[in-house]
Amino acid sequence: MAPIAEWVPESRLLQAWLTGRCSSGTVKHVMASLLRKLDFDRRTIALVEHDFSRFRAQLRQRRRARRPGVLLKSRRIHLGCGDRRVPGWLNCDVSGSELDLDLASGRLPFPDGSVTAVVMQHVVEHLELHGQLIPLLRELRRVCADDAVLWLSCPDLAKVCGAYVADRGQALKEDRCRRYPDYSLGGAPVQQFVNDLFHARGRHRNLFDLELLDWALHQAGFPSGEQVMEADLLTAHPEFPPRHDDAQSLYVRVCKSR
Ligand SMILES: C[S@@+](CC[C@H](N)C(=O)[O-])C[C@H]1O[C@@H](n2cnc3c(N)ncnc32)[C@H](O)[C@@H]1O
User: Whose CA is nearest to atom 16 of ligand 1?
Assistant: First the structure.
């Protein structure tokens, strides 16, 4: 499929949005109510909203590309930062970040060899393996300096499957509830937590174990990653707020050249 930025929007609403005459929130709201009327389910609507944000980020990325020398505020980049802005890092996400960009676009607006460290926590599982993640990893290899280190984390396919076999996910669900006391399965039996880890209401594309993530890294030209703990990331970069998520997560450290 063509990148969404190549699609020419025809509607007046979209034109108003693109020219800054109405906000992204308005477009999402109108689109969501239209999709609800058409009986699209909530998961589909959330994905459409996400693709709108990607579209907008791609447009911004294109505008920046026309201005040479995009300033790298920091040579350390924090991708898919969400609401965790880490001091001393360039915090990037699809919207509302210091540098909005679409990680699924296969392009990063940084010069070759300009980045010394990358942290990407719980992001790889949001990208299609072949069409989005591997192109992103190739692009990361391009922008990384030879001694750059990548820190990746994501839900661990091996831990999730092991947890289902061990106790249908009970211990992992308890771990989640300790970290997020408001988390609820809405009364469903505990194995629904395993579904939530796999799907995250449609936001997750794939879970990874070390072998699969390593394969993706090799496709992009990286050497093998080393499985580490969250503590290793925090020792290297203590400014990152802890997630305390080793029970469910895979942490991997990769050096561009070893
Ligand atoms: C589960 S959150 C993780 C947030 C943060 N890293 C953390 O550890 O709490 C996944 C993040 O990836 C971002 N993301 C997903 N797809 C993206 C894309 N195509 N481009 C940029 N960011 C994306 C989402 O917006 C979201 O903030």
Answer: 126
Q: Which of 83, 90, 126 maximizes ligand 1 atoms within 8 Å of its Cβ, making it the mutation to test the pocket?
A: 126
CATH 3.40.390 applies to domain 71-258:
no
Ligand 1 pocket check for 81: Cβ under 6 Å? yes
What string of pLDDT tens digits covers the 258 residues of the chain?
Answer: 455 445 444 566 666 666 666 666 777 777 777 878 778 888 888 888 888 889 888 888 887 776 655 557 789 999 999 999 999 999 999 999 999 999 999 999 999 999 999 999 999 999 999 999 999 999 999 999 999 999 999 999 999 999 999 999 999 999 999 999 999 999 999 999 999 999 999 999 999 999 999 999 999 999 999 999 999 999 999 999 999 999 999 999 999 987
Q: How many residues make up the chain in this entry?
A: 258
Alpha helices in the chain (DSSP H): 12-18, 24-37, 42-66, 134-143, 157-167, 170-179, 191-199, 210-219, 230-236
CA distance 58 to 73: 20
Q: How far is the CA of 90 from the centre of ligand 1 (A)?
A: 14
Show me where the domains of the chain are located.
Answer: 1-70, 71-258
119 lines ligand 1 (CB under 6 A): no
